[in-house]
Structures are given as structure tokens and as C-alpha cells.
Amino acid sequence: MTLELTVARNPDQGSSLPFLVRLPVNGTGEAGLVFATKGTWPRTSALYCHPLPADAWPDEAHLDIVERVELVSCTRRGAAIDVVAARSRENRSQVVTTRARGRQMVFWQSPRTRKQSRPQVSTPTARAAGITELEVVIDGRERYPWTFADQQVRTVRRALACGDYAVLLGGRVVAAVERKTIADFTASLTSGRLRYALGELAALPRAAVVVEEPYSRVFAQEHVRPAVVADGLAELQVAYPNVPVVFCDTRKLAQEWTYRWLAAALTWAGTELTVVDDVEGRDSAAAATPEPSTREVRAWALGQGLPVSDRGRLRPEVVAAWHAAHSA
Q: Which GO terms describe its biological process (predicted)?
């Protein structure tokens, strides 16, 4: 008997889960399991599966088949069902029953999505740039903002002209980060809104765009050609080289990158301001002490007992001696 995973469209138009999946489970005597889910295979993320009774599967007259996948095996192993498809790619997946948010839930996952959802990294807890408490301004229009709960950060909500997160020095924005999900990034890039946003960000001393998912997701788009997104991104990065677009694997890593980047930008801005003030101070001092006339330097030199000629240009060492005496 041939095992087959069947994917059909959900006839319930009001459901947020557009597909039905029927799994034959061999070796248990079960006729099959039916789930409502949002995808046809866990390609980019684990799919939540809502269990349905077996009679929820539409009859042949109303069955809209999307895909039939021949299976090598579909076997229950404790709380998981191992699904092995008879194809070379996207051939292994697992339907797992677990508990989340205090209730039982079912997820359909693949080795790739499991690795993406739980990357083997841990974020450091050391202060960024040695700053005891970094003040981060969050744009008042930002929905579901980062909390920076694991970092030494104090957040303030106020309106920002551009960007979603920023640091200020002397009341002026010196660095800002625009946060994007992959869906928002793709939509704003293809509509042209991202170009205008980068134009505003480029006017700041420092700015960046952070995407909460890896770059590989650019090539997993369903409603737009991946090449359009990849080419558009490359063109914008060439047009605005001072506004990097950074892809992070998860929301947590995007937050960590932003925290450390803003801290480094604030430290750098403070160093720049000190240098500018020092240069401007020297320039002001120089402007306040105008160059003396030859006659004044000659009179001063004679008063100091330095040998000078009665006329003509003064020797460089005499002029240097005058500057040394008056700067002191």
C-alpha cells in the first residue's frame, strides 16, 4: 500500500489556516490524522497545526488538492511522528506534540527550520562599549518594540524623524536603526518606500537597517520573485553605502546587534565631538591672537636682547621665539 501525504485547500473561508494536511500513520492502526495549517511544507519556519477530526477532510466533490507527496514512512514515535518523503529534497520532517502557553499544541517542523528557530548561540551580558546604562530612544509609532531586557539599557519613548531606535548626544540624534521583519522589508523595498527611508537615514551621522531574519529568507518569498528583492537590495546598498542593511537570524540577535552598534556609535560620536571642540578651540585661540607686524616683533626682540637687523625680513627663529613667548 502506498503511503501518501495529501495537502488540500481548507474549505473554511474564515480560517486563518488555509491548508488541510492528512497524514497516514502506519504501524498504529490509525486511518490518518488531519490538521489545519498555514503552509504545504515547513520550508522556512515551523508550522502550527490545528488538529481536526478525521471527518473534517472534505469529500471528493469538494476536495481541492494542492499537493500529493509519496512517503517512504510515516511513523509515530512517542510524542512525534516522523515523516519521510520519497524525494531527494525536503524529504524529512516531523510532527511534534508539545505544550506551549499552558496548552497542548502541534507543530510541523523540518531539520532546517528547527536549526533556524533555535540557533546554537547565546548572547553576552557584558556592557556594550563599557557604558553602564545606555539610553535608547524608541520611536513612539513602533509597535511591539524591543525591550532590551537582557542588556543594560534604559528606554525612552518619543517621536523620531526617522528610524525606530536611536541614541542622542547633546539632544541630537547621532545614530539610528530601522527595524524590519522580512515581510515588511520586502514590501517596503518593492513599493519604493525603503528608498525614501534610506534617504532620511543617510542624512544622520550614522544609521543602519536591521532585518530580524537571515538573508536566505530573501530567496524564500511566495508573492514576489526573489531576484527582484535581491537585486533591489544590492542597488540600494550601492546607492546608500553609509547605511548598512544587516540580516540577523532571530529577533533576539537583531536586538543584541542593535544594542552594541548603538553603544559603539554613541562612544564614537562623543570622541568626534571632543576632537571637533579641541580643533575649534585652537582655531578660536589662533583667531583671538592675530599675527603681529614685523615692526612689533622687531621691537620685542630688541627688548629681549635678541640680535635682529634694522630692516628687512626677520629670521624664522626670532618669529618662533615671539610665538613661544606669547602662547605661554
A: DNA metabolic process
Domain 128-273 class in CATH: alpha beta
Q: What are 73-86's pLDDT values in tens digits?
A: 888 877 788 899 99
Q: What angle do CA 139, 142, 145 make, to 5 degrees?
A: 100
Which range in 29-43, 114-128, 204-218, 311-325 is most confidently predicted, on average pLDDT? 204-218
Q: Which of 289, 291, 328, 293 is nearest to 314 (CA)?
A: 293
Alpha-carbon span 126 to 52, nearest angstrom? 48
Residue 43 amino acid letter: R
Residue range(s) of every CATH 3.40.50.10130 domain in the chain = 128-273
Over residues 153-175, the pLDDT tens digits come to 999 999 999 999 999 988 899 99
CB hemisphere CA count around 225 (13 angstroms): 4
